């Protein structure tokens, strides 16, 4: 039992690793908006599977749902940063990107509070707690179709300059936005001359060795700082 529940807990991280690893390929091929919409569907399916596990008397459904939920979160983490940053006007871009950290923390706090035995952590209500992750996914699934695709994606990957201008006007209102379009074109030109490294190539690259060490150490030791207990 200990082994099975350990796998159930840790398989979320394995799904997250797979989801984040495939995010770049999916965003380039299908666009950030489409990926986010499909990701919401994946989260709703995962929540439904976990929510029905008690009725079906199947712990395997929790295992599968946790894995799918991890894949969804792994996809969402980079997608959210990229999409929100790219659709925000330049003066609000830093603020918009910082909201993700706030909502990650808020979501964890709400989850911890909702998981108390006096609320949804009771023996009869825990399936509702596990299925509750479908609610924010459903909200985004309903509202996101009213937003345009990312302007940089339309211009840099699709070459759709008119679609890019239309998306910018829809997001930022009418006005002169040629400076922003010129910035995107400069970024596109820079990317053509920049080699994108794979994970293995990044690990082999001497120039990034110390930066990589610092990121790994920080990410590993943050789990030991007591933040989860707080």
TrEMBL record:
- Give TM segment ranges: 6-26, 38-56
Name of the protein in its database record: GTR5 protein
Cell compartment(s), UniProt = Membrane
**GO-annotated biological processes:** D-glucose import; dehydroascorbic acid transport
Q: Which residues form the Major facilitator superfamily (MFS) profile domain?
A: 1-230
Q: Which UniProt keywords apply?
A: Membrane, Transmembrane, Transmembrane helix
Q: What is the lineage of its organism?
A: Eukaryota, Metazoa, Chordata, Craniata, Vertebrata
Q: How does it sit in the membrane?
A: Multi-pass membrane protein
Q: Supply the InterPro entries for this chain.
A: GLUT, MFS_dom, MFS_sugar_transport-like, MFS_trans_sf, Sugar_transporter_CS
Q: What is this protein's gene name?
A: Slc2a5_0
| Key word Transmembrane present | yes
Name the SUPFAM superfamilies for this protein: MFS general substrate transporter (SSF103473)
A GO cellular-component term linked to this record: plasma membrane
Q: What are the recorded GO MF terms, alphabetically?
A: D-glucose transmembrane transporter activity
């Amino acid at each position: 039992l200990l082994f099975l529940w350990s796998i159930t807990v840790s398989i979320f991280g394995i799904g997250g690793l797979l989801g984040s690893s495939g995010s770049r390929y999916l965003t380039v091929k299908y666009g950030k908006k489409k990926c986010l919409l499909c990701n919401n569907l994946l989260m709703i399916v995962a929540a439904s599977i976990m929510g029905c596990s008690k009725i079906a008397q199947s712990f395997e459904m929790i295992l599968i749902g946790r894995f799918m939920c991890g894949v969804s979160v792994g996809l969402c983490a980079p997608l959210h940063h990229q999409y929100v940053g790219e659709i925000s006007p330049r003066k609000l871009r830093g603020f918009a990107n910082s909201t993700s950290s706030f909502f990650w923390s808020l979501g964890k706090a709400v989850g911890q509070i909702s998981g108390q035995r006096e609320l949804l952590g009771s023996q009869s209500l825990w399936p509702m707690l596990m299925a509750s992750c479908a609610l924010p996914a459903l909200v985004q699934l309903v509202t996101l179709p009213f937003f345009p695709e990312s302007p940089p994606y339309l211009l840099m990957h699709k070459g759709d300059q008119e679609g890019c201008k239309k998306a910018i006007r829809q997001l930022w209102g009418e006005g002169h936005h040629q400076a922003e379009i010129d910035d995107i074109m400069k970024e596109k030109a820079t990317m053509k001359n920049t080699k994108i490294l794979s994970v293995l190539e990044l690990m082999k690259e001497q120039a990034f060795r110390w930066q990589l060490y610092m990121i790994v150490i920080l990410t590993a030791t943050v789990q030991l700082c007591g933040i989860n207990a707080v």
